[in-house]
Amino acid sequence: MQPKFTDNELIEQTLAGNQWAYADLVKRHQRFVFTLAMRFAKNREDAEEIAQDCFVKTHRSLSSFQGGSKFSTWLYSIVYTTAMSFLRKKRIDTDSIEDEGVYIQVENKPSAYDENDVERKSRSYHLNQAIAQLLPDDATIITLFYKGELSLEEIAQTMGIETNTVKVKLFRARQRLKERLERNLKHEAKELI
Amino acid sequence: MNSIEEKLWNYIDGNCTPEDQQAIARLIEHDDLYKRKYAELLSFNAEFANMELDEPSMAFTYNVMEQIRAEQAAKPLKAIVDQRIVRGIAAFFLVTISVLLLVALSTVNWSAGGAVRWEIPQIQVPDPSNPFMQGFLFFDLILGLYLFDAWLRRKKIAGSM
């Protein structure tokens, strides 16, 4: 179903003083912004804090949005910079997939399972687990590419890097995600045996 | 040179030149390794595209809007006042002063020259021995000491913070 208003129309309404329009804009983008924040924060409370902060910042500087690019690209660049400064501030442990600490954490999860467990451990569950084990930058690129429906140029704009760098980073991120997913599934299979 | 996977990902994303596109399509058709890898990457690609987005709490939008409302309420008056109004008032006073100055200058009799005498106005200083005057000065002194004391206290508190 087509949304009643486009993002730019909602921005115009917000700037004219209609706060419901901004609430609509938040509702429209909150899931993606929250998911992006989760790629950095790794826990829901911090991710909500980042996501809320992004929407407040966006509202504050809405009048400076020129409309030259998509609103989503502009919003995601705010999410990216906010999340990066959050990481710097909180000094969250940004474990890479090479860091065995993360792997151990996954391995130490209770191995006992019941019917619900089996259901929960679907491929989608494993995919989310694998993404959570990636570096924030890798997870962000994958999320922006597959769920943000952004082109390589738009991802470059969002992350403030060159398009060619995005291409290379996306390739590497996909490789790592694939390896991590295979490793997790192999481990799962062993656990079931 | 690009690895097989890199070439295939570029092919899947549609990021290669038409010539490369054709060459890779031929390889997928005739080369078993390419065919197998392509099928594998396609299945991963489909899986990645099916990733689910996380859902924030139910009160998320409400919390954002509340934060914005609180921020707007806390804005100092200086930030809320429209700068155009301030500039308008300033312009009004500037124009009024300029007009008054021009009118005053135009009415000056410039030919009078040195005939005009400038005198300091005579001020009648009240007699300090007057009891009313003494009371007034005493009140001023007390008020001055009170304000000085308040200023020193504020300075001391600011210094200790």
TrEMBL record, chain A:
Keyword annotations: Sigma factor, Transcription, Transcription regulation
Pfam families in UniProt: Sigma70_r2, Sigma70_r4_2
Residue ranges constituting the RNA polymerase sigma-70 region domain according to the UniProt record: 25-91
InterPro entries (UniProt xref): RNA_pol_sigma-70-like, RNA_pol_sigma-70_dom, RNA_pol_sigma70_r2, RNA_pol_sigma70_r4_t2, RNA_pol_sigma_r2, RNA_pol_sigma_r3/r4-like, WH-like_DNA-bd_sf
GO BP of this protein: DNA-templated transcription initiation
Gene3D superfamilies: 1.10.1740.10, Winged helix-like DNA-binding domain superfamily/Winged helix DNA-binding domain (1.10.10.10)
Domain RNA polymerase sigma factor 70 region 4 type, residue spans: 128-177
Keyword Oxidoreductase tagged: no
Entry's Gene Ontology molecular function annotations: DNA binding; sigma factor activity
Stored SUPFAM superfamilies: Sigma2 domain of RNA polymerase sigma factors (SSF88946), Sigma3 and sigma4 domains of RNA polymerase sigma factors (SSF88659)
Family, per entry: Belongs to the sigma-70 factor family. ECF subfamily.
PANTHER family the record matches: RNA POLYMERASE ECF-TYPE SIGMA FACTO, RNA POLYMERASE SIGMA FACTOR
Name of the protein: RNA polymerase subunit sigma
Species of the source: Mucilaginibacter hurinus
From TrEMBL, chain B:
Transmembrane segment boundaries: 85-112, 132-152
Keyword Transmembrane helix assigned: yes
Keywords: Membrane, Transmembrane, Transmembrane helix
Name of the protein this chain belongs to: Zf-HC2 domain-containing protein
Organism of provenance: Mucilaginibacter hurinus
